[in-house]
Design a protein that fits this description.
The chain is an alpha/beta fold. It has ten helices and nine strands.
Length: 266
């Protein structure tokens, strides 16, 4: 069934997924964080020699309004399908070359199993209360020999009311993220931090929303203060910071997020 810009395969499910609708109000491909995450992703794809000029079939799980899916399609020849259960986000989905689905991957619909060469789970696992069955189901959508890419927020010690408002159940360390893949049939080949220059902002947000923020603040205000730059000029300054860091630090020793790649075994 086709509804607006997405196909409905599954009814939205209560499998422990939590995601704030308010977050999508501040997201587009001009936001410094979205650009920085995409820059880190493309750097890793080049390092792994993933062919961007071949028409690969790709699945973006937790695609939301397809901002990241469309970033990928603009820079590659890939056809990127997106899936999510958040109807409010899907209603805002932008048209792309790939299909967009309201689909619960835990259902493991046969038409999608082992269909995709690449699988992206970008800022998804932290929203899943019990990520192991979710991750196992997601990997079944990947062809043998295909690659999975995961991005998550780093450093559990900086979990704050911002994370709770955004629907995060956790922040990750490298060892806990690698542990999620134990027994899944995926060989983790790379894990790296990105966003080293954003560490002061992460620490400042932690202090603001753990110590200095009134408890009566609604989640929408916490997300706006914690994610949205206060002005277009500040967004441009963060973009400039990204340009400097990504030129000088290819593999920073710390950062606000962790990017992982792994290969599904044959």
């Amino acid at each position: 069934m086709l509804t607006n810009n997405y196909d409905v395969i599954s009814a939205p499910s209560a499998m422990g997924v939590s995601m704030s609708d308010d977050w999508y109000a501040h997201v587009d491909d001009t936001h410094f964080w979205m650009r920085w995450r995409f820059r880190a992703c493309m750097s890793l794809l080049r390092e792994l020699k993933i062919p961007i000029h071949k028409p690969l079939t790709v699945l973006d799980v937790g695609c939301g309004d397809r901002t990241f899916s469309n970033q990928l399609e603009k820079k590659t020849r890939w056809v990127v399908d997106g899936t999510d259960l958040n109807i409010n986000a899907l209603e805002k989905a932008k048209w792309g070359k790939g299909k967009t689905y309201c689909y619960d991957i835990v259902e493991e619909n046969k038409r999608f199993i082992e269909r995709y060469s690449l699988l992206f789970l970008f800022d998804v696992l932290e929203h899943i209360e019990n990520p192991r069955p979710f991750l196992q189901s997601a990997i079944r959508h990947l062809k043998p020999g295909g690659y999975v890419f995961v991005n998550v927020p780093a450093y559990p010690r900086f979990f704050s009311r911002y994370d709770a408002a955004a629907g995060h159940h956790r922040r990750y360390g490298k060892s806990t993220l690698a542990g999620e893949f134990s027994g899944t049939g995926v060989h983790v080949s790379c894990m790296r931090y990105w966003g080293f220059s954003l560490m002061p902002a992460l620490i400042g947000r932690y202090l603001l929303f753990s110590v200095g923020s009134p408890s009566r603040w609604p989640d929408s205000k916490i997300i706006a203060r914690g994610f949205q730059p206060p002005s277009a000029l500040m967004n441009m300054l963060f973009v400039a910071l990204m340009e400097i860091e990504t030129r000088l630090l290819k593999k920073p020793a710390a950062g606000t997020s962790i990017l992982l790649s792994g290969k599904k075994q044959n």
